[in-house]
Amino acid sequence: MTDDPFTHIPESGLRPFAIAAGQLLFRRDDPPRELFRVDAGRVALQRVTEDGQRVTIAQAGPGETLAEASLFADNYHCDAIALTDVGGVAVDKAVMRRHLRSDADFAEALVRRLALHLRNERQRAEIMSIRSARERTFAALACFGQSGTITAFAASIGLTQEACSRALAGLVSEGRVVRLGRGRYACRGVTTR
Fold first, then answer.
1. Parallel, antiparallel, or unpaired: how do β-strands 43-48 and 79-82 relate?
2. What's the rounded Cα separation, in Å, for the pair 120 and 125?
3. pLDDT tier, 191 (very low <50, low <70, confident <90, very high otherwise)
4. What are the phi and psi torsion angles at 129 (to 5°)?
5. Domain 5-126, what fold?
6. Which intervals hold domain Cyclic nucleotide-binding (predicted)?
7. Residue 6's pLDDT is what?
8. pTM for the model
9. Does position 190 have pLDDT exceeding 70, yes or no?
10. Predicted local confidence at residue 1, as pLDDT
């Protein structure tokens, strides 16, 4: 059995989508009509704080899904903004709910995916509690690897690009992290994620 619940949905129920970097996939408070799987690119789920700051609460890259929290909600709870050009497939919310009731393999694949996502988000919350930018960066790199740019990686762990870059430089000089190429880093002994 595959862990991608979208493979259980007939192609007629899938709608390809593509958006350019900087465009919104959906907006907070819009009624949720679809859930999404990203096949290429990265999407940030963001909220705006009361003082007007945009905060990234999660990101989705190739093979990942988003808007699952809206499956039983009346509104999307955040904005989904393309960090790069993004392509993937969308599934109508009603189709997803129908498959949950009628297809046990689909339901199991969706629950498995959500459980993995929950574990990863708990791990990310633990990493976010690390005060030192250097140690937070190392922990995130060790747990998740670096997908995307340094800016996207930094945002995913609550750091500025500058603080993350300084942390990475320090980790490289300590020998704990290796530079794989321009803007690409990994923990020593790990070449890819």
1. antiparallel
2. 9
3. low
4. -80, -10
5. Jelly Rolls (2.60.120)
6. 17-117
7. 86
8. 0.73
9. no
10. 39
Question: If 0-12 CB within 10 Å is exposed, 13-18 middle and 19+ buried, where does residue 104 land?
Answer: exposed
Number of H helices, E strands in the chain: 5, 10
Dist. CA 179–CA 116, nearest whole Å: 28
Residues 6+ apart with CB under 8 A from 130: 136, 139
Question: Considering the domain 131-187, what is its CATH architecture?
Answer: Orthogonal Bundle (1.10)
Give 54's DSSP letter. E
Both tokens of residue 133?
């930018």
Alpha-carbon Rg for the chain, nearest whole angstrom, is 18
Please report which helix (H) or strand (E) contains residue 122, including its range.
helix 104-128
| Spatial separation of the C-alpha atoms in residues 83 and 68, rounded to whole Å | 19
Q: What is the pLDDT of residues 5-57, one digit of tens each?
A: 888 888 888 999 999 999 999 999 999 999 999 999 989 899 988 888 888 88
Q: Which residue has the tokens 């989705």?
A: 60
The string of DSSP letters for 128-164 reads: HT---HHHHHHHHHHHH---S-HHHHHHHTT--HHHH
Where in the sequence of the chain do the CATH 2.60.120.10 domains occur? 5-126
Whether the CB-CB separation of 63 and 3 falls below 8 Å is answered with no
Q: What pLDDT digit, counting tens, does each position of 57-71 carry? A: 888 888 889 999 889
